[in-house]
Design brief:
Length: 283
């Protein structure tokens, strides 16, 4: 069998053992029945484990609270997160989206262990009938959302990006070319843009259409996929292994973004989330 490279979280704070150890910890708590069906209490249990046993690189209360406030303001019908890890954001944000009247929450995760742990904790929180997990490389799951017409109105209202920073730009480019991000409708939030850092992503979402066209010229290779409509192309030819190579997709430079960085202090440094609104489309 050929070796499969898994392009996901490389650092030790995201290993499988921490995730499964968390699961054992939560389901062994003496107050488990008090936690069941209560998203806030499940989040509290995950935080307790991270603070007292093994550190988990979740979005956390401060940055997560900012996203929850955004959800309450925007009331997204459909939210998609890229990167589930242990389900922390799916629980925190899925609960907020449901409370705000939202209809869909999709969590995209490449690692089946993380997806399984997340699913169990999401069900424990009482969100099992609302949060849906797609297990595959995230660009493939984005293609599936478009190919199978899974999104209401074919669009993502709020996209939360929190997986491997090296994949932030390539996966955003796929979402752009699939037409999932709509002017005046969509907002993109990305975590960890300072630490560990996603400078290429920040550069892309703060660039003008002209600047982005120059970047795409520099990034172009003979293998770049050039089609009039990526959605039509994958509906005709399929997607995933042996189908359309989604790693050869470049972004849509015509989308106009407005981006703000919201910084948060850490013990010896700082991190930030970026909030990007899709405000227009240049012809």
């Amino acid at each position: 069998m050929a070796k499969i490279d898994v392009p996901h979280r490389e650092d030790s704070v995201h290993d499988d053992t921490r995730a499964t150890d968390l699961l054992h910890y939560v389901f062994s708590l003496p107050n488990l029945e008090e936690i069941r069906g209560n998203p806030a209490k499940v989040i509290e249990a995950i935080d307790d484990y991270s603070e007292n046993y093994k550190f988990l690189m979740n979005v956390g209360a401060d940055k997560g609270g900012h996203v929850v406030s955004l959800i309450r303001q925007q009331k997204p019908s459909t939210m998609v997160e890229v990167g589930a890890f242990v389900g922390y954001s799916a629980i925190m944000f899925g609960s907020a989206v449901r409370e705000a009247g939202g209809k869909q929450y999709f969590s995209l995760e490449i690692n089946p262990v993380f997806a399984a742990v997340s699913s169990l904790l999401v069900h424990l929180a009482g969100l099992g009938d609302f949060v849906q997990f797609l297990i595959a490389p995230c660009n493939v799951s984005l293609a599936r959302l478009a190919h199978d017409d899974m999104l209401e109105n074919g669009q993502i209202n709020l996209l939360f990006v929190d997986h491997w920073q090296k994949r932030y730009v390539p996966d955003l480019w796929v979402a752009e070319q699939l037409g999932l991000l709509k002017p005046g409708v969509s907002t993109i939030v990305a975590d960890n843009v300072i630490l560990p850092g996603a400078p290429d992503y920040v550069e892309w979402v703060t660039a003008s259409p002209t600047e982005k066209r120059e970047k795409l010229k520099a990034a172009e290779t003979p293998d770049v996929l050039k089609v009039e409509s990526l959605v039509d192309h994958i509906k005709k030819n399929g997607y995933g292994a042996g189908k359309v190579n989604l790693d050869n997709v470049l972004g849509n430079p015509n989308l106009i973004y407005e981006t703000e960085l919201h910084k948060y202090p850490l013990l010896n440094s700082e991190d930030a989330i970026s909030v990007t609104k899709v405000v227009g489309l240049e012809n």
